[in-house]
Design a protein that fits this description.
This protein has helices at 71-96, 149-157, and strands at residues 15-16, 20-23, 26-32, 39-45, 53-57, 97-104, 107-116, 123-129, 135-142. By secondary structure, it is of the alpha+beta class. The chain is elongated and about 75 Å long. 15% of the residues are buried.
Length: 164
């Protein structure tokens, strides 16, 4: 059964078993820990192929089997996995979008680098905007273009020429 399965009414499937919970767009699955004799839990967001979170899971009272999933644990796991995804998205955004402000005689100029992560031909767009967010210049550069204070100031000083 697919993790994002739908029943005949096209409503999400809700499963609440000891080792598998599916609800609210998330699936928690208790799995055997590959590194030792313990257990782990993986959290998978519907539609994703990789888990957002994998972590240790508590042993049950018999010290052999995992503790069953319950509503409180599932809610905590959803919250934690959502936070992991949010931080990952913030980190990715920070890697792909950079901004440096350069002071000029005409006021501040914001130099932005937006990387387009294409599998075949990645590239970046280097742009400059004034204090009123008006576009001053925009050029396509390599995805490996290094935006720092020196490169931004040099590009502005050259009248937005010679970015590469």
């Amino acid at each position: 059964m697919s993790m994002d399965s739908l029943d005949n009414d096209s409503t999400p499937v809700v499963i609440k078993e000891d080792r598998l919970w599916c609800d609210n767009g998330w699936t928690a699955r208790v799995i055997k820990n590959q590194d030792d004799d313990g257990w782990a839990v993986e959290m998978l967001k519907d539609g994703e192929s990789e888990p957002a979170l994998v972590g240790p899971w508590t042993m049950g009272r018999d010290k052999k089997n995992p503790k069953p999933l319950d509503a409180g644990a599932f809610q905590t796991l959803v919250k934690t996995a959502s936070e992991v995804l949010r931080r990952h998205e913030q980190h990715l955004h920070a890697l792909l979008h950079k901004r440096i402000t350069v002071s000029t005689d005409n006021g501040p100029v914001n130099v932005l680098l937006d990387i387009v992560p294409d599998d075949y031909e990645p590239y970046a767009v280097l742009s400059a905007r004034d204090a009123f967010d008006e576009l001053l210049a925009e050029v396509r550069v390599s995805a490996g273009f290094k935006l720092d204070r020196r490169s931004a100031a040099g590009w502005v000083e050259r009248g937005f020429g010679g970015a590469e």
